[in-house]
Amino acid sequence: MVDKYKFFEPLRVRFAETDLQGHVFFGEYLTYFDEALTQYQHAIGCTYSDLVAAGVDMFYIRSECDYKSRAFFEEVLNVHARVGQIGNSSVTFEFAAFKAHNDELVATGKIIAVTIDPETKKPVRVPDEFRGAVARYENSKE
Amino acid sequence: MVDKYKFFEPLRVRFAETDLQGHVFFGEYLTYFDEALTQYQHAIGCTYSDLVAAGVDMFYIRSECDYKSRAFFEEVLNVHARVGQIGNSSVTFEFAAFKAHNDELVATGKIIAVTIDPETKKPVRVPDEFRGAVARYENSKE
Amino acid sequence: MVDKYKFFEPLRVRFAETDLQGHVFFGEYLTYFDEALTQYQHAIGCTYSDLVAAGVDMFYIRSECDYKSRAFFEEVLNVHARVGQIGNSSVTFEFAAFKAHNDELVATGKIIAVTIDPETKKPVRVPDEFRGAVARYENSKE
Amino acid sequence: MVDKYKFFEPLRVRFAETDLQGHVFFGEYLTYFDEALTQYQHAIGCTYSDLVAAGVDMFYIRSECDYKSRAFFEEVLNVHARVGQIGNSSVTFEFAAFKAHNDELVATGKIIAVTIDPETKKPVRVPDEFRGAVARYENSKE
After folding, report:
1. Angstrom distances, CA of residue B121 to CA of B27, B52, B55
2. Do A21 and B64 touch (CB under 8 A)?
3. What is the sign, positive or negative, of the torsion defined by CA atoms of C103, D58, B58, B128?
4. Contacts D18 to B, Cβ<8 Å
5. CA D86 to CA D91: how far, in whole Å?
6. Which of B10, B50, B74, B123 has its CA 20 to 30 A from that of D20?
7. What pLDDT digit, counting tens, does each position of A58-88 carry?
8. What percentage of chain B carries pLDDT values higher than 90?
9. Residue A122 has pLDDT above 60, yes or no
10. CA A58 – CA A60 distance, rounded (Å)
């Protein structure tokens, strides 16, 4: 699974993100995925700010997370991100978080976003700049 | 959908739970679901503490959330919860959050939990007390 | 100390708010205070929305919290709130959180807010409506 | 102020950390300070895990934060940390967060911790290893 992802963002588990079971609270993974998504957009060269500047906002319509093992305070998670699919007005981001020190898979998941008109909040076509940026990044060698 | 749920927990949106888009941050819904799950277990008479006292802990193995509309600061969400399915060592909790003032559906979702041995962290059979408590609660009239 | 406060908001500790030490994460108390502040403004009849509608926003310029004892999952905290002082453009809110079941003091604290012009972000005089609402509430009997 | 701190941890503002006012929620700064504190202890060579392994835990008894300006999504904050004072069983950590791109001061603050016996939860003397590690780090040149 790792080799299908070109991008990852390393995130170190904060004390605040743990719960009384001693590991990362299950809800925090959505924040990790979201932060990896943010940085993935930098990697491909079409950031959230670029979209907003181009007159398009993004709302999330679905999230999924499968918890594969537990992560602990101070462990570094390499949160892999990629775009799995682009529809007319939706983008499916996929994630896989591995422990940096031993490659253990901690969680996988998805976020499905729709691109919207900031005024009407209605779906609009995913901009070509974004489509192109994803294609160039994901299809480039190395 | 509302009438299939017997239980709900009202939760008012806190300022801390909003983000720069002006609505509730998408990750917060898992916390809302988790809090409704906690209170659902009180309603059926078999709490998390009861399980732990009986020698069983719970880990979550999957979460899903579908975002149907946006919720805002100070709005009260009635977060409905029920058990959808109980397997050998897994329990599927289902959720639906509606705005209290107008019944608008905001989010639906699932949390799948496994019951585990606190020492070995291995799955164990869902205790009969929990199965019985769910059955009594969900099957009772009114 | 309890009897100097007329208002409190009961808040039950969520699983998400605990950390690996088994108690409430120290940063969560600011969220508790903030939520009590929100509800205090409802009690006095001059809410955050009322201020915004009247053309005034609020920024926080200082917070303090003293941790007196530990709070645990599912415990209900009665978070007391009042206004300690009102300056030209600043309001000092004071807080004290007690366990509902045994009156144990868990935390005390302060939030100092400034009222600002939403456009310029410069301090403006605390509106008379707010001053009056605080005075009426805090000075009324029972 | 910057030049009195030898250590800082760069932290990039996450979407989850913003609120409806468009900037970082005031409570998040305690999480930032706490994360900088964690990494400061790595820098001096006496980590939280080292303390726990040596039979000493830490509880926080006070926090303070002064908000000097607003921080926004994706801005990098260099969160400076140092030990201001060590008492018999208490340690005062001091913090100052600056924007990386323009050195603007965003927040200053303090966390006062007490070292405790993990069993009795009673204060114990701050270990000499910690005192020595702080002294060596803060007094070393460059």
Report:
1. 26, 13, 12
2. no
3. negative
4. 19-20
5. 5
6. B10
7. 999 999 999 999 999 999 999 999 999 999 9
8. 94
9. yes
10. 7
Model confidence pLDDT, tens digit, residues B61-86? 999 999 999 999 999 999 999 999 99
Q: How far is CA C55 from CA A39, B118, C52, C125, D23, in A?
A: 37, 55, 5, 12, 19
Q: Token pair of C40, please?
A: 């205090």
D36–chain A nearest CA distance, Å: 10
ipTM exceeding 0.90, yes/no: yes
Neighbouring C-alpha atoms within 13 Å toward the C-beta of D25: 26
Asked if residues D90 and D70 have their Cβ atoms less than 8 Å apart, the reply is: no
Percent of chain D with pLDDT over 70: 96
Tally Cβ neighbours within 10 Å of residue C128. 8
In the block, tokens 């299809």 appear at A139
β partners of residue C97: C79, C107
Which pLDDT score is estimated for B4?
A: 78
Measure the CA–CA gap between B87 and C31, rounded to whole angstroms: 38
DSSP run (H or E) holding B132: helix B128-139
Question: Hey, where are the domains in chain A?
Answer: 2-139
Q: Reduced to 3 states, what is the DSSP secondary structure of residue D130?
A: helix
- Upper half-sphere CA count for residue D132 (Cβ side, 13 Å): 5
| Partners of residue A62 in chain B, C-beta under 8 Å | 64-67
**Residue B140's pLDDT band (cuts 50, 70, 90):** confident
Residues D96-124 have pLDDT tens digits of 999 999 999 999 999 999 999 999 999 99
pTM for this model (two decimals): 0.97
Structural class in CATH, domain B2-139: alpha beta
Q: Does D34 touch chain C (CB under 8 A)?
A: yes
Maximum distance among all Cα pairs of chain B, rounded to whole angstroms: 47
Chain C CB contacts of D62 under 8 Å are 64-67
